[in-house]
Amino acid sequence: MKKTLRYNYRLNPTPEQEAKLIEFGATARGIWNLLLSENMRRYEFDKTFLFYNDMASLLKEIKPFEEFTWIKSFDSAAAQQVARDLETALKNAISKGRLQRFPKHKISYKKKKLHNDSFRAVNNSNCIRIEDGTISIPKVGKVPIILHRELASKIKTVTVQFRHGKWECSITQEVECKTALRVLKTITGFDINSKQTVVGSNGYVADNPKFLTQSKAKLNQLQRQLARRNKGSNRWHKTRQRINKLHGKISRQRLDFAHQISRQITNENDILVFEDLNVKAMQKFNGSMVADNVMALITQLSKYKAELAGKLYHEIGRFEKSTGICSECGQHHVLTLNDRHFICVACGVHQNRDLSAAKSIANTGELDLIAAGIVARVNPTSQRKAANKMKVFELSKFAVGSEKKRSSLAFIS
Ligand SMILES: [Zn+2]
User: Fold this and answer.
1) How many Cα atoms sit within 13 Å of 98 on the Cβ side?
2) Name one GO biological process term (predicted).
3) Ligand 1 centre and the CA of 358: distance in Å?
4) How many CB atoms are located within 10 Å of the residue 410 CB?
């Protein structure tokens, strides 16, 4: 199985290159607006849309005309990517299952003074290469890049964007997943409490880092400052730019933290069980923005890391309650936010609220996976293992072949 990964790198363009990048971002925005207007006109006229093929041929048709010379200097593969993105946006807006809004026209940098145009180039016949600390981008040239980590495989696409006051490019690559582990030795449930602390059923605890709270306090201060300024004034724009930069810093801090935690828990566990993080529920329960939600990020990152490593990631149903459930007997308890511990009314066990929740997440996940026939519980043969209550699972599709089963069991005992 292959997965597409996205890595972000910082770019250091020369002034000439920077001008080109700004121009290309504006061109991509112009093409988006042009194609969107055309689609809206078409829809008013006969209730149809232009999809990718129509839009691509339309671009080809208008290129020779004088008023569209700005498209000519642009990378044609990148122009096609704009059409592709617009097609996706249109499809998402009109299909019933998705609740996305109808695509909007993009506003120019000059108007909002926050520059975030972007364009995406495609690696056709190796036109995007990394050599001598630069990345070659079609029609821009060799742009210096900070290669903080090696590429995992061949580059598919590169998106260049000026974000939060810095140039960056995100490179997509296709990476082959490791073959699925046949024997899975640990199953761990993870719970997130109201303080956004991650608690694992094996006793793992990771606190929400302090620097995030500090950055958020700074953000609140700047937002109050913005409210005092006259809207549209120079000082107002200045504060807005500072807020934009700080947003960039916070999002990098969150991402870094989420990467560290997800790396650690996927390295240490074979089966990871999370709750389905209904964004709305999370929002209600930590009382701050959805964008703040580090936990949703941790689950996302753990999912792909587990898949790459051939491990199992599982989300239990959204409506399975985990908080206040005794992990020993399943008794429900109503707890307030301040109850960090409780004593089970049915079996009398003293329970830590978060640990008990994480354990019941692991239990539910185990039942789910076995019921769905994804894994089978294997009984460790030796007495010692049974005494340790060590759980061992096997991927079910491999359980059929007895030869493989024997060898893998021999390996763990
Ligand atoms: Zn109990």
Assistant:
1) 11
2) transposition
3) 14
4) 9
Cα(317) to centroid of ligand 1, in Å?
A: 22
Please tell me the least confidently modeled range out of 7-16, 161-170, 265-274.
Answer: 161-170
The rounded Å distance from CA 330 to ligand 1 centre is 6
Mean pLDDT in residue range 90-113: 75
Residue 112 CA to ligand 1 center (angstroms) comes to 58
Report the sign of the C-alpha dihedral through residues 11, 13, 19, 23, in that order.
Answer: negative
Token code pair at residue 171: 């490179």
Ligand 1 mean position, distance from CA 345 (Å)? 7
CA of 360 to the centre of ligand 1 (A): 11
Say which residues have a Cβ less than 8 Å from residue 391's Cβ, sequence separation at least 6.
185, 186, 187, 366, 377
Instruction: Measure 378 CA to ligand 1 centroid, in angstroms.
Output: 26
Calculate how far, in angstroms, residue 361's C-alpha sits from the geometric centre of ligand 1.
Answer: 15
What protein residues have CB closer than 5 angstroms to ion ligand 1?
326, 328-329, 331, 344, 346-347
